[in-house]
Amino acid sequence: MPKRFVVTASEFSELPRFPVGYELAEALTAAARQLHDTDTPHGTLRTAVRLAVHLLPGAEHAGISVLDGGDRRHAVAWSDDVVRVAESPARVGAERPYWHRLWNTPVVRLDDSESVGGEGDAELAGLGLRSALALRLRADRQRLTVLTVYARKPRTFDEAATRVGRLFTAHVGLALDSATVREQLTEAMRTRDLIGQATGILMERLNIDAAEAFDSLVRASQRENIKLRDLARTVVAANPRS
Length: 242
Known about the structure:
The chain is α+β, with helices and mostly antiparallel strands. It has helices at 24-36, 41-55, 81-86, 97-100, 122-126, 159-206, 210-224, 228-238; strands at residues 61-68, 73-78, 107-110, 131-139, 143-151. One of its GO terms (molecular function) is kinase activity.
């Protein structure tokens, strides 16, 4: 038998587990509130794996990974080290055929990693993970983002867990979109301010107006094949204001 991976308590143990009988709508509302309180997409993903362990029936571990068109996978968020190891790139390949089905279906369940045949998974079994529920979070032609929850017992995730999981991933998707937009807007404002500073420096140095200074930046960006933002940052860094 392969050596079992011993897992210490999660760093997220301060989050309350939703009690038995807690109304699903209330639980999802509480989860959505925490998801939307995050500032960045990465923060949303980290919060999502924390909440998945406490919200999805039977879940003991959770992780979010990105799978590209060539079936190369890398973990982007995890609840603990066992998931980080389970979803590491070294463990991606033909031994996980159920993952590939997520390109065509929104959810895949692994009932028992110790099953004999194509649906077993010796790697997960060696880590002490017997059940898995993989839920598609985002998908396009080239990239697939998946939330997976795991349990130490076989046949843990039933239809009820699947329904809760799909509702939860819908909330995660909305929060992730919102965080992405906020991050883009923040970056756009920073870029605007940076370009404004660089324009001002060129106006002063070359004794030209704002339009001419901006055109000069654009032409230099195109000529040097450098993003306008990066060029502006270079100009500002080379001309610190006193």
